[in-house]
Amino acid sequence: MLSLFPKWLLNSNVYSLSVIDLEGRYVFVNEYFKRKFNFLDHEIIGKYFDSTVHPDDVEKCRAASYKCVTEHNTVVEVQIRKPYKEKGKYLWTNWEFSLLKNEENQILGIMCVGYDITSLLDAQEKTQEIIQTDEHIFETLTDGFCILNKKWEFIKISDSAQQTFQMPKGKILGKKFWDIFPKNPSSNYTKQLPQAMKKQVIVQFEDYYAPLNVWFRIVAHPSQKELIVFFKDITEQKNAQEKTSNPQDKLEIVLNTTSDSNILIDKNYKIIEFNTTAQKLVEILYDKKIAKGQHISEYLLPNTEQDFYDNFDKALRGEIVEKEREMSFKDNLKIWFLVKYMPFRDTKNNSTGVIFNVIHIDKHKRIEEKLKQSEYILKAIYHSSNEASIFISKDLKIIYYNYLAKETIKKRFQKEIQIKNSILDFIEQDFQEEFLNSYMKSLKGEVIEIEKRYDERDWLMSLVPVYDNEQDLVGVSYNMREISEVKKVEKRLSDTQKELNYSNQLLKTILESPKGSIIYALDKKMRYLFFTNSHKETMKRIWGSDIQLGVNMLSYIHHKKSKKQTQEYLQKALEGSYFTEIEEFGDYELHRMYWENKYSPIINEKNEIVGVTVFVIDITERRNSELKVTQQNERLQSIAWQQSHGVRKPVANILGLIELLKADLDFDTRQEYLSYLKESTQELDHIIHEIVEIANREDLKVMTRREYI
Fold it and tell me: Which pLDDT does position 551 carry in this prediction?
């Protein structure tokens, strides 16, 4: 591929050269490109171009590349922002994209040639400010500068510009540009400047102006009213590029315009040229001076000789050899270098020697070692995860996976997972559509979790978006975890919960089933822990309240006396007492109800009182039966008294009168005794009627106290 490029471009210190394959990866860059952007990645070859371009300019590059591929002979010019060493800042660069083919007309990729225009654009911005503020400072600009109005008339020009044009300001200001610089179909300025004015776009180009024998680099910046033109004399740079006829001149330019250490060695291992960096490096590391004509072996470290000669021979055969080496010097000094062996050819393309290039990369390597250590730790964490994890790119390719993922995939699919495989190769057929939908959602920032069952085992799959340090989404982490045991535990818990629910319902049914029974439980703050429906209905009927769990029972009782009495009973139970209270409801004259309240403290496993339970039973029927028996006993007592006291007198009178009537009595006496007998008999009859009446009475009153709850 090197033979396709002119040598001045390969070794340029002005132009960056890169070749990008049709997949967007770097396959070649020149040395200037490497030095300019090696802070991004020491090994740029194989990396995708979008890692070295401002995110907003990526699509611009793709469009330019597409045009080159579809229109083979087209050269596309684009302005691209490239990352700068200072984080967050970018360099403005101008590039030309064209299609690169080999001798067989096969497409090798897109050739990109570019140069830095940041300083020009910065100068342009500064000059615009200067124009508005200080005419004197404007005149001090070193680069050529002029302003044209819409009529193409010069309205301002810098001192340096009049010197370049070799014409005084008085003969330029007010004159038309095309009168001083006539249109020339073969010149770039004839095409580019009108384009900038018409399309209101910035243009940058190089042009040769024959009347002055000068090469210019020109940047034109349009505004609504004028065109600002910057130009710089680059004749010396152009002449340097064209010095390809003399290899020695070319060598001197290359060696002395770089910070690398470069030594040119002939076929006999003799030093024929070196740059100042090489001279200083040898003095520092070897305590001696390098000299032309000396054998290179005098500057080779022990145990490196054979490696040097092997690589030297490869370079003589046309190869470019690169190696990173940690070299040991005196005082146990160890330094990392990037060592390159590059063939050097004469004008007939014959290999005449080797350029031995050494770049100091110790700082970079030390940082790299730390990063590798960090990477080792991160990988250890990644591989020790209890989840099978696969990192997927934005085009469904596998980028990385941990050990558990490898084992899981092998068991599930009976094949090995490989980087760059499509993840769809390891997704079940019936799951692929759902997986793809979830994957697209994850690329938009969502975290997706899916449960699936395969081969009698349960799996939890998750797709999590992955971001880089700049918070740009770079892919998706696909994680798999077998949850069969978890599902079994969940099922046991579910079954247990069902059993508990059933038991609770059964207990509640049992508690609700006794007719006339009420049960409720309160915590130490007298808040409801539990209550039966019958208690809820009773509280609604008595107090008009819909009671709720967690609410203080006393807040529902609106009668002060009843609230106080209830609070005393509950507090007594909370202090540890077990007791029963009979409470009465209703009216003496109508219907009265009786309730038996059994108060019991609730005691936990630590023997601490944590609440109170109240069992309330309707004992009205029992109480009425007891009252009825009492009433009956009272009636019987009354009858017995009547029998023992009221009946005895008339019966005794009757018995005594009967005995008297047995005697021989005269008529009048007999009649008198008979009247007494009749009177006693009537008295006895009256007493018997009273006894019957007492036995049949239902309106006996048993006076009891009246209370309200």
Answer: 95
